[in-house]
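Treating backbone geometry as a discrete language has practical consequences that deserve illustration. In the encoding step, the backbone of a single protein was reduced to a row of integers, each denoting a local shape. The amino acid sequence and the backbone structure tokens for this protein are reproduced below.
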Amino acid sequence: MLNSDRRILLFSDQPPSTSVVFKHLKSSQFYILLIDEFTEKRLSSSLEDRPDLILFDSDRFQFQASLQLIRFIRSKKISVPVIHLVRDDHYLARVQSLQAGADDVLSFPFAYEELDARLDSLFRRASMGTNHLDGAVLRHTDLELNTDTREVTRDGISAKLTVKEYDLLVYFLQNPGMVLARKTIMNNVWGQSWTGDDNLLDVYIRYLRKKIERQKLEKLIHTVRGVGYILK
């Protein structure tokens, strides 16, 4: 798919004339829907344009408003990929964004080649339907994932996953009982073009465990120290 066929919903309080993010995306031939109001009302109306990705470019004043909108997106079970660009380089800002439901987070300053790589990774996974598994039902003990509906259940109870959490779980379910190296997981879930910190994997493993390993349920994802993880 050409970039011109991809619609990005960009939340930014900067006008097009001064927004470097808008200018970069525009120069890459994306179709940009620029929204300058960080409100649920504007978000809801903008979703009618069926964006392929939502990108929040928030300064410190709009950071909390961005988190609120990301939570709103996930509470409505909207599966559109979300990237959050934050001005705060502290790791807690990135953690808060991921906890809210963002699929990826970048802290300023960053190379726009890295933003492009992350956009490509999310677009690729969204269009592929996660490794061409459409129609398959993946199971492991009492965990079940339906790739048609993207529904995940554990012990009969539904678990709401973000796009990246879903991709990560699919990869584990494709390779049960195998020790998966950290780099192998990153390459297969985030793509070989990924250049960020692989500590992001630990963050997503923690989120995934919270959702599929509820209290009193058997632990499924195990850490293999010095190597990676295993689903068993």
The helical segments are 20-27, 40-46, 63-75, 91-100, 112-132, 163-174, 182-189, 199-212. The chain has eight helices and twelve strands. The longest helix spans residues 112-132. The chain has two domains: 7-129, 137-231.
